[in-house]
Amino acid sequence: MQHIRQLQTALTILMGALVLLIISGIVLIYSYSPGEQTAVAASTGTAPRADDPGQEATVQPAALDEVAQAGKSLFNNNCTVCHSLGAETLVGPGLKGLNQRRPEAWLISWIKNSQQVIDSGDQYAVTLFNKFNKTPMPAYTDFSDDQIRSILKYIEVAGQ
Fold first, then answer.
1. What is the mean pLDDT of the chain?
2. Which of 30-39, 61-70, 119-128, 129-138 is predicted least confidently?
3. What is the secondary structure of the chain as a DSSP string?
């Protein structure tokens, strides 16, 4: 019975993520116009190349050092489906001010395996889990502590 409940939870998460991706794609399609290339370049870190208008060159934002840039890549590839950099709630909480909410060691443990932190009886973790409909966060056990620190640095810098 517990396996069925876990499967239902996983399917619910996947369906929510799929809906968010579809909505995001629709919003991007309908909100972008060719005259907005400068705004898009500022928000995505890319800009049209003068030598080939069909290609984009990466623009390194001045505010992001090498560590935060690595964190940006990890965040964009793993976290954006469920989390915003601002206060907006998606599937999970918005991450603005995350580094002030909990100590770094706690955040690293949570990101690596939130269910383990919840199962330990940590009251903050249990409250967070319950607040977000008992939706488990995926475990990122393959991430090193330094990779997670780079994500946390990116969240801090991007949320300013």
1. 77
2. 30-39
3. -HHHHHHHHHHHHHHHHHHHHHHHHHHHHHH--GGGHHHHHHHHSEEEETTEEEEEEE---TT--HHHHHHHHHHHHHTTTTB-SSS-BSSS---TTHHHHS-HHHHHHHHH-HHHHHHTT-HHHHHHHHHTTT-PPPP-TTS-HHHHHHHHHHHHHHT-
C-alpha span between 89 and 74 (Å, rounded)? 20
Cα torsion angle, 26, 83, 148, 70, sign: positive
| Separation between Cα atoms, residue 77 and residue 126, nearest integer Å | 26
Q: How far apart are CA 51 and CA 149, in angstroms?
A: 37
pLDDT in tens, 56-65: 333 344 458 9
- How far from the centroid of its chain's Cα atoms is residue 100's Cα? 17
Are the C-beta atoms of residues 137 and 82 closer than 8 Å to each other?
Answer: yes
Q: What is the pLDDT of residue 160?
A: 75
